Amino acid sequence: MKKLLLILILTFSLQSWTKADDIKDFEIDGMSIGDSLLNYFTEKEIIEARDESHKGQEFITKNLWSKNSSIYEVYQVAYKRYDKKKKLHAIAGVISFPNNINKCKKQMKKISSELSTLFPLTIKKDWGKYDTSKGHYFPITFTFKDNSRAMVACFNWNKKSGIDDNLKISLYSYEYREYLAKQKQ
Fold first, then answer.
1. Percent share of the chain, pLDDT over 90
2. CB-based burial of residue 63 (10 Å sphere; 0-12 exposed, 13-18 middle, 19+ buried)?
């Protein structure tokens, strides 16, 4: 019953009650691409949040602890460095699955199925397993007509990383996706 409730809550926290082909129509705990981060967190909270920005830092990436959510433990957000309004270009909700990647992957598959229903006009792709220096992850993406993207993924971190295995549900603008692609070159 708890699993079903979690799936329903995750599903409804991502949608705005209609099926659409624009990523801005979807939410993670009320936050949408294009919203001001300042509508959800104070300037002080944002400044004090853990910074995970990439080199070059055209975009600032912050980890903010959830205040009110019963689902997500952390939000990962990105906005342009010199944008005083801190308009969101990426939002992710993170749920820990300490030492339980199999449970995470089961949840990911269920959420992916629900996202397929919510995002019927997108291109869905299951990328399989991707290795990183700190472990590996299993992304499933949904690409919109404007090349923005939603993703659900389980991350299986190695013990040296000190990070718990986790499930991440993400929304990215096309502009932020281009920026990330440049960082990998």
1. 65
2. middle
Residue 52 confidence (pLDDT): 87
d(CA 24, CA 172): 10
pLDDT digit string (tens) for 126-166? Answer: 999 988 888 899 999 999 999 999 999 999 998 888 888 99
- What are the structural domain ranges in the chain? 2-183
Please give the full DSSP string across 41-72, using - where no structure is assigned.
Answer: S-HHHHHHSEE-PPTT-SEEEEEEE-SS-SS-
Distance CA 50, CA 64 (A): 7
Checking 64-73 for CB contacts under 8 A at 24+ apart, the result is 66/29, 66/93, 68/29, 69/29, 69/93, 70/9, 71/6, 71/9, 71/10, 71/13, 71/29, 71/95, 72/28, 72/29
Q: What is the rounded average pLDDT for all residues in the chain?
A: 86
Residue 32: how many other CB atoms lie within 10 Å: 16
Which residue type does 17 have?
W
User: CA–CA separation, 156 vs 175, rounded Å?
Assistant: 27
